[in-house]
Amino acid sequence: MQSGIAALPEEASPGAARAALDLSFVEQGRLLRNGTFTARALTEACLERITARDGAYRAFYAVLAERALADAERADSELANGHDRGPLHGIPVGIKDLIDVAGVPTTADAPGRADALAEADALVVSRLAEGGAVIVGKLATYEWGTVGPDKSGLFPPARNPWKLDHITGGSSSGSAVAVAGGMLRTTLGTDTGGSLRGPAFYCGVVGLKPTLGLVPDTGTLPMAASMDHVGPISSSVAEAALTLDVIAGSQASRLIGTSISGLRIGYGRDWFAQDPQTMPCVLAAMDAAMSTLSQLGAVIEEVSLPDYPAIEVAAAAVLHKESFDYHAANLRDHPQDYGRRCFLSLAAGLALTDEEVARARRAGAAFRADVDRLLGRFDALVTVGALTTALPAAPFEKEAVWTPMRTIGFNLSGHPVLAVPVGFDDGLPMGMQIIGRHHDEARIVQIGDAFEHATDHAVQRPPGLS
């Protein structure tokens, strides 16, 4: 089923703009260009909705109304003068609070960064501005991208719109919640071990982790430099791809709407089918998703992926070592700048030896080579995103818990990965990963878009928002 585009009512610009908030930003852009409403009206409607909903969802650390309205008025002026900057022109966008927005604290939800004003926009934010986007706010994160949800940070943790007492799934929590809660169509997040994809799985939205290095991280707080990725979390595959095109100068959207008939897809079922943590509903949803791709003409073949526990251990070692090295001096000299759980997570890297880290990097290189060999035979690989639906938040708020996802290996290998909803169980979303060759984002977008249009998962809305 294709994502629905409802007809707009015959009413004044503010009412039309409010009605358009639930349309894709492609359709919003069409209506901006034909004069149905202005970018300012759309932005005002967006700000009204944030005010109405975010008290429950807590996605936003800062709502930048003044900047947003200025951005919107500039967008309107430029369109009136025939200057069209592209698909994000006049579209509201939110930014994870590990990414700099000029004049606003980049807090990382850390006690020591409440007043850490950014002097300039991060390069990705500058690219959004150059594309005409309207920057409306800074979005929730786990402290320094580490563990959560944690109530000891600067702000209360974001809440999953599907069930408010369940986890959001990772540090790009506000980015996914803002989209799932219907407050924004697209946002920016970061992903070092699954922090972009996890919230997409658990909140029922789309996450696109690009090839390592494709999107510049200048002006983004690091976690582990060799594994950090910046990418979009969006309402649909097309919106994620178009957002990536703007921040990366890529052509991720170039195959949208084309047939996947004849494409060869390797199904990594062995990564989760026999795992005792895998919920039966997740296994059933994944098998059904493969059936859908087969019905669309793709050739599906089960494949054996490299041992997941081994690559998870290796990737975690690299992540902990690099994050500790970045923070070591400040952990020693200013421990009060960190919440307790974040401090302990970062300090874990102290115990790793150089040889252990070197061995982990070799394991990462071998994993990358193994995946590359599989991608020599297949156009893409597909496997599960998380073994469960979003779990209750209460245990995570007491201590650090490693969520059962299958994500972190692709941070070490750098392959592009698209996270797409595959169904729901007991009112909670489930998601899969589509993995592609390096710099072949267009192929995984093509597959994800075809799947999305053949199902109704992407048009589902949390309770009260249907």
TrEMBL record:
Residues in Amidase domain copies: 42-444
UniProt xrefs under SUPFAM superfamilies: Amidase signature (AS) enzymes (SSF75304)
Gene Ontology molecular-function annotations: catalytic activity
Domain of life: Bacteria
InterPro entries the UniProt entry points to: Amidase, Amidase_CS, Amidase_dom, AS_sf
Functional description taken from the UniProt entry: Hydrolyzes indole-3-acetamide (IAM) into indole-3-acetic acid (IAA).
Protein name stated in the entry: Indoleacetamide hydrolase
Organism the protein comes from: Devosia chinhatensis
The organism's taxonomic lineage, starting at the top: Bacteria, Pseudomonadati, Pseudomonadota, Alphaproteobacteria, Hyphomicrobiales
